Amino acid sequence: MELTRYVDELQHQLATAAAAGGDEARELAGRLTAPLDAAVRLVLLEALSTAANEITAELAPGAVDVRLRGRDPEFVVTPAPSPAFDGAAAPAAEPARPAVLDPDDVSTSRTTLRLPDQLKAQVEEAAAREGMSVNTWLVRAVAAALAPTATSRPAARATSTSGRVTGWVR
């Protein structure tokens, strides 16, 4: 996403507003527009990052990340996995995925989480391995932990003829 057109538009609007104030105001606006370029870009990036975090909270277990490529942001969308059901048992390496969050609940909450340093390092490594922020990784982990598991299904649906059992045990 190229931010230059938005920065240029803001500079144009500032120049137009300053024109009504006469030559002195126009000259001051001209001196302010160049230094404002970096500040405007930073504010736009912060707004885009906040928007991506809010979208990620609604999209969990999917995610939207904002990455900086040169001077411009780039959006990376990680869709939620779509579970395919073919009647066969799921492989042991694939944990149960969380259910989609309620789309009517658009609010987010800030929570302070204190982790031991060793666990924090492991969380950061896991998030980096999956190419996402720690916050996005934690939202997914919590959503997965709270999702209904295969063991909550009725026993009649959980039967298997392969003799192999996979899943979580409480």
Description:
The chain has 170 residues and is mainly alpha-helical. The chain has one domain. The protein contains four helices and two strands; from the N terminus they run ααββαα. It has a two-stranded antiparallel ribbon with strand order 1-2. It starts with a helix and ends in a 24-residue tail after the last helix. InterPro entries: Arc_rbn_hlx_hlx (IPR013321), Ribbon_hlx_hlx (IPR010985). Residues 87-110, 149-170 are annotated as: Disordered. This is HicB family protein. Residues 87-99, 149-162 have a biased composition (Low complexity).
Protein topology:
Layout: H1 4-19, H2 23-59, E1 63-69, E2 72-78, H3 117-129, H4 134-146
Antiparallel strand pairs: 1-2
Characteristic key phrases:
two-stranded antiparallel sheet; mainly alpha; 46% helix; 4 helices; 170 residues
User: Globular, elongated, flat, extended or rod-shaped: what is the shape?
Assistant: elongated
Return the structural class.
mainly alpha
Q: Please state how the strands of the largest beta sheet are arranged side by side.
A: 1-2
Which segments are poorly predicted (pLDDT under 50) over 5 or more consecutive residues? 85-99, 152-162
Radius of gyration using CA atoms only:
24 Å
Query: Mean of residue pLDDT?
Result: 75
Total domain count: 1
GO biological process, one term: regulation of DNA-templated transcription
Region (Disordered): 87-110, 149-170
Organism: Oerskovia enterophila
InterPro entries: Arc_rbn_hlx_hlx, Ribbon_hlx_hlx
